[in-house]
Design a protein that fits this description.
The structure is a single chain. It contains six helices and 13 strands. It has a single domain, classed as Ribonuclease Z/Hydroxyacylglutathione hydrolase-like (Metallo-beta-lactamase, Chain A). The longest helix is centred in the last third of the chain and has 12 residues. The mean pLDDT is 92. With 217 residues, it is an alpha/beta fold.
Amino acid sequence: MSLDKVLVTQMLVGPDRVFSYLVSCPASRAAVLIDPGGDPEKILDAVSLKRLDVRYILCTHGHADHLYAAAALREELGAMVCMHEADAAFFGKEGSGGAGSPFPHIDVRLKEGLILSFGRRDALVIHTPGHTPGSVCFLVGRHLFTGDTLFVGAAGRTDLAGGSLDELLDSIREKLLPLSDDTIVWPGHNYGETPVSTLARERRENIYITDFLMEDE
């Protein structure tokens, strides 16, 4: 899909059916890969088909289902793995992001407001704790890659280690809702009626916003 001079390829990958994204600059073919949750061959085929130069592997958080292919693709693509410093510390201290997946080497520890450039495009890091301490969203133009912070019609779990419902709601309220209505929401899982949404639609229909946030206003 081509929107705002950004190319977005959405792929369902891995045993947990995570949405992985190739986001590229059409002018330079420089790209970032977001949440490589498995099926490295499928991802590599897409990179090859589109003749992309993947500069960064961006992790929205440290759970294994979003990382299964990170280590292998780091080696194959020569790309730097990026994760927020809080999740790099929280999940990396035991050397694993979860059962069955070695925790990847983290080349870049992300912080709020950091900008990663690829070609003529930039990815802005938005720290959105709640699902995990170091959960982040990535904003490229008007494309928002939300990982497990915000889904279509729902939001991420907060009952796992490091999770907090209050923090998640604060993140959505303070970091995401101020963005424009035409912001395109690309979630980490295909849990909603559609695989992609907009903030305008989520304001109207997402129960975490309508039932938990709007009632407080």
